[in-house]
Design brief:
Order of helices and strands: EHEHHEHEHEHHEEEHHEEEEEEEHE
Number of helices: 10
Strand content: 25-35%
Helix content: 25-40%
Radius of gyration: 21 Å
Length: 316
């Protein structure tokens, strides 16, 4: 699938006090992981439960139309054209029923959100995601952004090596595309690549499971586009996909019970701390909150992380 441009030097994740403690407050260790490695965690939320009412639906008509356009190409074989049309119908319906297992449920993407705007000090982000200014913006270094892991706790509990139960998300976050023009371009690239893959499968040059691989590719791309009203956020997304058999964890949220999965990152390595800096929001008692964050970082062995105050003149 089409990939994003090069990652920025730092991407910021806005959160409140509870979120900060959930990310950094209780580092974990895994048997078989690098010696003395300790891991923090971020939550990746089922994208359907995020605050955009058009989440995963903004790009559906665009992707379906581009798949149909690919099917009309006279160079397509009948079998490939039919599969493109079948995929277009599935995209329009928005229900990606996995077929690889009889008990598999529909696939869905889980998303962790970052922002590249204003060096972690954007007022709308404080209001929307940073506890009204009383929260924090965690600046994840570029070297960390391609080193997040999904952990299969069942395999971990059985004592398997770290490399087997931990799946590294190598690509890192993707830059969100805003508005119909940017979304259409991405969906055009996606449909073209899917058509080429189906042709390669028919010629025996690739082995890709139909339709599951294409369902997973579709939901990943749909999670990368949003309405232009959100453009100020300059969002980047780390996307992981539920293949139909995973069992997420759950937390309370505005929409009731919200599914999520944990993504783990090593707190520090030879490249330095995973979190290069933390911006303390512009809300009340900023000095006390700065002091508490420094003490927390010292406790977890990440004193190399810079702590700075938001410059936004906002009381919260």
């Amino acid at each position: 699938m089409p990939r994003s441009i090069d990652l920025p030097e730092t991407l910021y994740h806005y959160t409140d006090s509870a979120g900060l403690l959930g990310i950094l407050g209780n580092p974990v260790e895994f048997d078989g992981a690098p010696r003395n490695a300790r891991y923090g965690s971020l939550w990746a939320t089922d994208a359907r439960y995020l605050n955009d009412t058009k989440e995963l639906r903004f790009g559906t008509k665009l992707l379906a139309s581009e798949l149909e356009e690919q099917a009309r190409d006279t160079a397509r074989t009948p079998a490939v054209a039919e599969r493109l049309l079948e995929l277009a119908r599935t995209v329009r319906a928005g229900t990606f029923e996995m077929t690889w297992h009889k008990d598999a449920h529909p696939a869905t993407p889980f998303v962790t959100c970052f922002s590249s705007a204003s060096k972690g000090d954007l007022l709308s982000q404080w209001r929307g995601y940073g506890d009204g200014g009383g929260g924090f913006a965690l600046g994840f270094a570029r070297s960390t952004l391609t080193k997040f892991y999904e952990v299969n706790t069942k395999l971990h509990d059985h004592g398997d090596p770290f490399g087997l139960f931990a799946n590294q998300l190598l690509g890192g976050p993707d830059q969100v595309k805003y508005g119909r023009r940017e979304a259409r371009h991405l969906m055009m690239e996606t449909a073209s690549e899917m058509a080429a893959d189906l042709e390669a499968v028919e010629r025996g040059q690739k082995t890709l499971s139909w339709p599951d691989v294409f369902y997973l590719g579709s939901i990943e791309q749909l999670a990368k586009v949003k309405h232009k009203a959100f453009a100020e956020e300059s969002e980047w997304r780390l996307i992981t996909k539920d293949h139909g058999m995973e069992h997420p964890e759950f937390r309370p949220g505005k929409l009731g019970v919200v599914p999520y999965v944990k993504l783990f990152f090593q707190l520090s390595d030879d490249a330095g701390p995973a979190i290069s800096d933390i911006v303390v929001g512009p809300g009340p008692e900023q000095s006390l909150r700065v002091d508490a964050v420094k003490r927390l970082l010292d406790k977890i062995g990440s004193s190399g992380t810079r702590v700075r105050r938001s410059k936004a003149p906002f009381r919260g």
